[in-house]
Amino acid sequence: MRPPLTIDSGALDGSGWDPVEDRDLDQDLGITIGRSSCMQLYHCPGSFDHPHAEYTQERPGSPRRATASRPAPGAPSRARRSVPRPALRPAPGAPSRARRSVPAGGTARPRTRRDRSCSEGRGPSLSVVAGTVVHVINDLESVDWSSMSHAYGSAHEVPVWLRAMASADAGTREKAFDDYYSAAHHQGDVYPCTAASLPFLFALADDTATPDRGAVVQLLLSIGREAVDCGDDIIVAPDGSESTAAADSVAMMRECSGAFLAYAQDPDPGVRRAGIEGLGLFVEDADRAFGALRERLPAEDGIVERLLVVHTAATLALRLPTARTAATAWLAALADDPTTEPDIRLAALVHHARCGEDRDDAVPTAIALLRRLATAPERRSDEDGCRSGTGSGDCACGSGREGEGDGETDTGTDDETDSDAEAVARDGVPPQVTAAFEDLDRHGRLHAPTTSLLRTFHTVLDARVPERTALLTEQLRSPDPAVRYDAIRMAQDLITSWRGEHTGLVLLLADCLTPEDPYTAAAAAEGLRALGPVGEPAREALAAHAAAHRTAHGPNAWAAAKTLPRRAHQEAVMALAGLGDPRALPCLLTALDGGTDAWRAVQVAGRLRPGAGELVPRLSRHLADADLSNPWADMGTGALMSALAELGDAAAVPALTDAVTAAIRHDQPRIGASALKALAAFGTEAASALDVVRPLADAADVNLRAAATAALWALERDPADVVPRLCDLLDTHAQHDAADVLGLIGPPAAAALPRLRTMLTAGYEWTRVHAATALWDIAGEAEADVVVRTVLAAWAENDATSDTVLACLDRMGPAAAPALPRIRAELAQARRSGRFGRVANDEDLQRTCRTVLGRLS
Q1: CA distances from 772 to 668, 763, 780, 817 (A)
Q2: Cβ burial 692-720 (10 Å sphere, 16+ → b, else e)
Q3: Angle value at C-alpha 196, between 195 and 199, nearest 5 degrees
Q4: Angle separating helix axes 503-511 and 465-476, nearest 10 degrees
Q5: How is the beta sheet containing 38-43 ordered, strand by strand?
Q6: For 526-538, how does the pLDDT look when each residue is reduced to its tens digit (9 = 90+)?
Q7: Is the predicted pLDDT of residue 51 greater than 60, yes or no?
Q8: How far is the CA of 192 from the CAs of 145, 235, 249, in angstroms?
Q9: Are 793 and 818 contacting, i.e. CB atoms less than 8 angstroms apart?
Q10: Which of 29, 42, 36 is nearest to 8 (CA)?
Q11: Distance CA 507, CA 308 (A)
């Protein structure tokens, strides 16, 4: 995996982003990533079909701890998005806050003053609302802020932001919170300046005249929660010293825990929500905290607050052993109380399970409560949130449920559609990038108030696949369309994570492919595509759905004017093509001929080998038309080359050869390497490209040289020329590719054996695997013992090596007998495995295991 894109939150003019690798661009795209973080999207250059990965990076100067911070329910979002999200507020259900690993190094750049031009010095004069604690604000100057640091340097700006939080101007306050979250509470980190801010934040929160008190208390809660999450982590401050800021913050939160008891009874719902959650995190007196929570449940009218009370009771029980008995007994009683509303009973049931209290009837009870919720009388909340039509208000996503203001709501009017090339020319951004952001936004939406609860319940149930299947069956059959929609992703997660008999769930997903609801249909088709071969039972439903769209919107349904039907049709066609179904071919040809979203068609074109005669000329034309001088070029060309290689029609060889020449001319070695790898897939049928390939085997770029050397072997099969080159590459970062090609050459590559044996002692398990498999392919039985030991050790160390290891064991025949116990153990496990975490890989893995077992048993 490599990052084709690094997205920096700092923009050309401070309001958007630009790729760090392309700093000479002169346009601003108007997007800010997270709380001023740096995000990278990774894709596999070997196949665009492999799932992308996304990382959010710390910037230089941040403490060396990474978290994926989030506001609590009801907190104002501090993340700007290019596509506005609906005003959805998740019902508290306790999906735990995930920590995100941060890759070392990276290309993040320090934020400059240009990016934060309004944060210089004390900033503009501020009008503080009368009645606020002015004397406390004035005390800000008594703190030596300049001696402390935040994510981007000196903390001298922190008092400016704290002062601005009390401004009478809403815009000034909003910017102050943005700046504070971005720097002094960057991605949830807690710095000394963050801890030093707490007395002033408490003072603002305690003054009822402070505007946006809810935002202030939510900030206090976020700081305290992150500090608690640090636990015993050693925090390294930007200056390299060990910081006690997290511990200091926790100590102050608990010293001021009485404030949260007051906030939990505040008339302001924003203050009250944060106060309720704070009871579970900061109050040390278990009886007092639990008593306050019990009092809040009947006192609250809003469903958000009531669910939060139940959630917090479980948090308190998990944190304080002295609260556990009373809290879990209360949750159990709530769950069984027929006079309590079904949503509160469901929350109590889920959080009772979250506390580790198992009950045999948990899933049947949850199913019964879901049925009651589907027919429950309407009960309005004062909270604007995403609700089903039968729950506590209308779904904020609307009838089309693509969201208000997100650019995808159908209005009944036709919208113009652009070809991929026109979109890049207009926006300067490949459509793949735009789609990636849309996917991230879409996947983060909640449509039913029970969704976060049910996600938590599935997390608690974990490997209990039959029970989770029963629960998902009920969700997918719910009369509430919002519940059904949110269940699609949960079903996808279950099937892609766990082995088992999933036909029933697949068919229920297929039932969601209704033309009347293209928003849900698109999500279902997307989920079915992710299931790979396990989605086979939905084949006919996918074909029927695609055909229905062509009937309704004409043969050019792929480029239908309305966004929702277009996306639903495209997802169904792609899922159908992923199953190798030729009925997808006409739609893919339409996409490639018209150009609209052609990149989506390219992703799956390689699966339709019977259609190669029609696909290869079109794919070759798209490759020839690609502007390889564009820095984005490899994002599209890599998929084209992979598709041509997968189709296996030698008619693609001239186009790939031309692509190699063009890539070198435009100084695009990575594109050149991808084209060479595609050529190698054709073997001697691509011999006409030898004159172009041979000089590149001496290229300065290691990746290009390795790809050319591999292509030389595939096209010419001359070990005398290739083996010495590959032996040299064993001492470069391309050593894995070189070892693989040496293995393909077999015994004529014996000269590489000494170096391959040395690689068996490498610290990196992947290096050992590639060396061991090559060793077997070259030396055979003489190396069998060491090869089996090496690959089994690597497999135990890193499950991602399993596909490569099993392929080697399959080739070894009887010599693989010592691996039988490990192979049986692999087949016995319920969780899926494999290198890319994809269903198709795991299904192949299981098939190979059975093949080896059948041969050796």
Answers
A1: 33, 14, 11, 16
A2: bbbebbebebbbbbbbbbbbbbbbbeebe
A3: 95
A4: 20
A5: 2-8, 38-43, 53-57
A6: 999 999 999 999 9
A7: no
A8: 9, 11, 9
A9: no
A10: 36
A11: 35
Contact 471, 361 (CB under 8 A): no
The residue written with tokens 């994570």 in the block is 497
What would the pLDDT profile of 693-749 be if each residue is shown by its tens digit? 999 999 999 999 999 999 999 999 999 999 999 999 999 999 999 999 999 999 999
CA dist., res. 496 & res. 493, Å (int): 5
Phi, psi values for residue 177, rounded to 5°? -65, -40
Instruction: Region of 8 please: left (phi>0), alpha (psi -120 to 50) or beta.
Output: beta
Q: Structure tokens of 589? A: 């040809």
Tokens standing for residue 758: 């040395």
Q: Which two tokens stand for residue 619?
A: 């794919």
Q: H or E segment at 7?
A: strand 2-8
CA angle 195, 200, 202 (to 5 degrees): 90
Q: What is the mean pLDDT of residues 249-269?
A: 94
User: Whole-angstrom Cα distance, residue 418 to residue 563?
Assistant: 12
> Which residue from 262, 250, 141 is spatially nearest to 206, judged by alpha carbons?
262
HEC string of 335-388 equals HHCCCCCHHHHHHHHHHHHHCCCCCCCHHHHHHHHHHHHHCCCCCCCCCCCCCC
pLDDT in tens, 63-113: 333 333 333 333 333 332 222 222 222 333 332 323 222 223 332 222 222
Question: What is the pTM (predicted TM-score) of this model?
Answer: 0.79
For a pLDDT cut of 70, what percent of the chain falls above it?
A: 76
Q: Would you call 24 exposed, middle or buried from its count of C-beta atoms within 10 A (0-12, 13-18, 19+)?
A: exposed
In Å, the largest CA–CA distance within the chain is 87
C-beta separation of 41 from 3 below 8 A: yes
The answer to whether residues 391 and 448 touch, using CB atoms and an 8 Å cutoff, is yes
Nearest to 2 by CA among 758, 559, 746, 634: 634
Q: Taking Cα atoms as reference points, which of 153, 84, 116 lies closest to residue 9?
A: 116
